[in-house]
Amino acid sequence: MSSEFTITRTVEFAETDMAGIMHFSNYFRWMEACETAFCRSLGLPLLTFTPGQVAGWPRVNVGCEYRAPLRFGDTVEVRLLVRKIGTSSITYAFQFRRSGELVAKGELTAVHARGGAEGGMTAQPIPAEIRAKFHEAPAAALQ
Amino acid sequence: MSSEFTITRTVEFAETDMAGIMHFSNYFRWMEACETAFCRSLGLPLLTFTPGQVAGWPRVNVGCEYRAPLRFGDTVEVRLLVRKIGTSSITYAFQFRRSGELVAKGELTAVHARGGAEGGMTAQPIPAEIRAKFHEAPAAALQ
Amino acid sequence: MSSEFTITRTVEFAETDMAGIMHFSNYFRWMEACETAFCRSLGLPLLTFTPGQVAGWPRVNVGCEYRAPLRFGDTVEVRLLVRKIGTSSITYAFQFRRSGELVAKGELTAVHARGGAEGGMTAQPIPAEIRAKFHEAPAAALQ
Amino acid sequence: MSSEFTITRTVEFAETDMAGIMHFSNYFRWMEACETAFCRSLGLPLLTFTPGQVAGWPRVNVGCEYRAPLRFGDTVEVRLLVRKIGTSSITYAFQFRRSGELVAKGELTAVHARGGAEGGMTAQPIPAEIRAKFHEAPAAALQ
């Protein structure tokens, strides 16, 4: 049972843009990398394929607030916190810190969904055995 | 003076992920492509470099809400609407439509900022001649 | 039956890096976008899924030679030429031109392959009805 | 003085495509990440900005040969070998291994170049103090 997870990343050259900073879209890839590592630590895959069926966590809502730019070579701590566990969705909050300074805050809500081979996915209540692995972070940690 | 702009894009193979849909981070690249085309239509560059000085529109807040997945080859209309013109920032709303269906909604707030060669950028009031080119969209269009 | 295809693209902000030019990896995405449009023009999908079976064109060899950098907003013609049709593979040559100037040359060899639901793909001879759609470009065009 | 360097990476969800494998363009980002780490280990930046002047290693030629696909979560060793030190260029060879199996081979030639603020860069002989840090790998290692 877990409510948070942290990874550390370094800004790569290909992640910068001509303004000399990390392109704003890449923060979402970092959030997902942190979510992947968190789920892996819980023994949960981000996506499973069984014949004729896909199960995963499609995103329904994401956001990011940028406070200070990140530059090539910056080492950044990406911290995930479980903000809310709903019936069929989970909301994560993310904090990006460089040398302790909060440089960005993110949020991502994913829905537990299943789909057939033809593509459409529909939201499903999170099964109890999966739900039991997540724990909401204390309000103080989320500020 | 303009309050909206529309581009049309087709989902590329490299924009999909193993779930068979457009990766959620790519919607932000599409928003930026639409913003770029909008600014170009107004005669405004997204970024200017003059010796020792950079001026641009760094992002301070972005978000996206996903309603239906996009697939390889889907043709999508991305519509930008000027939601709010602040003292030093502009907020855009985005609507993604496939065959008329609203599949995603986005938002992006950018700040008019200047910086020196060493990198730091600071927010600046939007000059009157630039401000005069933008016009807030009517509330009805933003729903 | 066709031996060439051309698309036109404009360098996007997200495609640049901190050196102020298009990141070298993005040329490969442009090659693929051109290949996709070419195959679509021939009525051939880049990838097909049927229950329990995937058929597509995995890449076995790619390369790119860069002659002049591309910058944000540059409009570029990407021209595909069918260089070689093998038993189970096709090799495309690509020419990138800005205002007529050859700024890069690329190459991509893809293999016609099929695979099962579990992932492994194996090369297959290109069926005659597909092969009939491709035509090798004249040597003069490939220089 | 060094002739090789190795990093380890895990395939991220955002690096996959709808064929369920790592998109072929991402191998080039991994090569660059390995080159960056190698140069950093030698105390050499990939790019330097001094007022009015940029110095870096623009790419002139890259290639990749794919032997087996990589999947989400695969852990891969990326090994850089210095293949050739020219007057103004360096050619690196890359080997991608998963559990010891060679799954891809890459190559990247970069030129030591300088440019002014306006953007054009021109090749420059590699200064002796930089050249002294690189060492060509033995032929046996490059096979």
Distance between the termini of chain A: 21 Å
Largest sheet of chain A: 5 strands, antiparallel
What is the subunit organization of this protein?
homotetramer
The H-and-E topology of chain A, N to C, reads as: EHEEEEEEEEH
Count of helix runs of chain A: 2
Beta-strand residue percentage of chain A = 35-45%
CATH architecture of chain A: Roll
The CATH topology name of chain A reads Thiol Ester Dehydrase, Chain A
CATH level 1 name of chain A: Alpha Beta
Query: What does the overall shape of chain A look like?
Result: globular
How many distinct folded domains of chain A?
Answer: 1
Structural class of chain A: mainly beta
Low-confidence stretches of chain A: none
Strand order of the largest sheet of chain A: 1-5-6-7-4
For the CA atoms, what is the radius of gyration of chain A? 16 Å
Quick one: which chains have the greatest interface?
A-B, 26 and 26 residues
Count of DSSP strands of chain A:
9
Q: How confident overall, as mean pLDDT of chain A?
A: 93
The named CATH superfamily of chain A:
Hotdog Thioesterase
Helix content of chain A: 10-25%
Task: Walk me through what this model shows.
The structure is a homotetramer of 143-residue chains. By secondary structure, chain A is mainly beta. Chain A has one domain: Thiol Ester Dehydrase, Chain A. Helices cover 14% and strands 43% of the residues of chain A. The first copy, chain A, is built from two helices and nine strands. In chain A, strands 1-5-6-7-4 form a five-stranded antiparallel beta sheet, covered by helices on one side. The model of chain A has no long low-confidence stretch (mean pLDDT 93). Strand 4 of chain C pairs antiparallel with strand 4 (59-66) of chain D, so a sheet runs across the interface.
